[in-house]
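Morning!

This is the sequence you dropped in the shared folder:
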Amino acid sequence: MPQPAILSDIGNVLVAFDFTIAARRCAEFSPFPPEKLLTRLDPIKVPYENGDMDDATFVTEATKLLEFQGDATLFEQIWCEIFSENPAMERTLSGLAGRMPMYLLSNTNGLHKDYLLRSFDIFRHFHGGVYSYSAKCSKPDAVIFEKTVAELDLDPGQTFYIDDLEANIATAKRLGFKTHIYRMDDHAALERELEAWAKK
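The structure's back. Tokens below.
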């Protein structure tokens, strides 16, 4: 029987990310300036996040597009080291630990998901998740939310969903989730809404 649960996005919620960090580091091994590097990956980023391309193929194609002179291991390291944990969210989730299950729903790729889960302690609070690359679909499409409900045995009406993007929140709201659009510079707003929801 579904019970109250928290469902959270990852990027710019649990962790901040900045692709320009990777661009600057890649530029040391590429003929292109940082501002040109990220756009060169545009043709393969969405297929990679949607699971149409595996990790090894992405790395091969990305290093070709960037004319990257380092090896695959170096590229993977640079690609992944763009995240920093959100301490405010860690404090909030620690206070809720044990009161209800917490799950993840993220548009992400295999390299990033594996790196995040092994590198940041905040993910210890979560009991599983659904990721675009393995679900073969992504937010804001309703399909990935429906797969998440089925896979994690969630009741949208009893699930508090957190995301930083309006389009994703709009889909979740339409499907009956309790939603909160998250802003790192207004973490207190999340705490107020979570506290009020948890008391119901």
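Headline: Strands lie at 5-8, 15-17, 83-85, 102-106, 129-131, 159-163, 178-181.

More detail when I'm at my desk.
O.
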